[in-house]
Each structure stands twice: as C-alpha cells, then as structure tokens.
Amino acid sequence: MAGSSRGLVVASMGLAALMALLAVADF
C-alpha cells in the first residue's frame, strides 16, 4: 500500500514537472 502510494506521488510529481517544462518550453 505505502509503496504504491509513494509511486503515485512520484508519478504525479513527474507529470507536473513535465507539464511545467512543456509550459516553459512552449514550442
């Protein structure tokens, strides 16, 4: 349970970072 929850947090952080990067890069 804890490992899966942590994985979800990491995935959502990664997705947020990717979105921020795309927003900044704004091709």
Assess the beta-strand content as a share of residues. Answer: under 5%
Order of helices and strands: H
Largest sheet at a glance?
Answer: none
Structural class: mainly alpha
Query: In angstroms, what is the radius of gyration?
Result: 12 Å
Q: What helical percentage do the residues reach?
A: over 70%
Total number of strands? 0
End-to-end span in angstroms? 39 Å
Number of helical regions: 1
Shape: rod-shaped
Note poorly predicted spans: none
Mean pLDDT, all residues: 86
Task: Please outline what is shown here.
The protein is built from 1 helix and no strands. By secondary structure, it is an all-alpha fold.
What does this structure look like?
The chain is mainly α and 27 residues long. It is 89% helix and 0% strand. It is built from one helix and no strands. It has one helix at residues 2-25. It is rod-shaped. The model has no long low-confidence stretch (mean pLDDT 86). Keywords: Membrane, Transmembrane, Transmembrane helix. The chain crosses the membrane at residues 7-25.
Topology:
Elements: H1 2-25
Transmembrane segments: 7-25
Keywords: Membrane, Transmembrane, Transmembrane helix
